Amino acid sequence: MSLREEMEMLRNLPLFSQVEPSKLKLIAFTSERLLYRPGHNLCAQGEMGDSAFVIIRGTADVILETERGELKISTLGQNDIVGEISVLCDVPRTATVRAATEVDALRISKEQFTSLLQEIPQISADLLRELARRLEITTAKLRDVSMQD
After folding, report:
1. What is the pLDDT of residue 95?
2. Could you tell me where the DSSP H helices lie in 53-120?
3. Is 90 exceeded by the pLDDT of residue 123?
């Protein structure tokens, strides 16, 4: 994929729709495009995170490892971002993200991701909304599981 095609792909992602072309070019140039086969982890619970991922194509399951085994929290798809909590908070990954189908993802380094959030307030606002939505979903799932006891 050419740099121009990557920029266009990034522009179509809701998270980056407000980013000016020069910054899109920098993101496209410095990020890494990765392909994951079904069953392979994008990231694993407990490891330290050095990057966030944007899913370009495919689906991935978010899995919480518990004393009872694995608990699937949600499924992410095209345009979803994952791994940002570890990058933002300097904490170990809070969950494992495993490719359910073939996943094409864009890996954005911690430094680049942090810089984007500082330079473009709209990305920060969109990310906060997404994190709040995910927290609500996860809390509901955990409440359901605890009621099954």
Report:
1. 92
2. 84-89, 110-119
3. no
Round the average pLDDT of the chain to a whole number and report it.
Answer: 86
What are the CA-CA distances from residue 124 to residues 45, 71, 96, 103, 115 (Å)?
A: 24, 29, 23, 25, 11
CA–CA gap between residue 115 and residue 12 (Å, rounded)? 20
Do 35 and 103 touch, CB atoms closer than 8 A? Answer: yes
Residue 53 burial (C-beta neighbours within 10 Å; 0-12, 13-18, 19+): buried
Picking from 90, 100, 107, 108, the residue whose alpha carbon sits closest to that of residue 47 is 90
Mean pLDDT of 4-13: 80
Closest CA to 53 of 5, 1, 93: 93
What's the whole-model pTM score? 0.80
Alpha-carbon gap, residue 28 to 108, rounded angstroms: 9
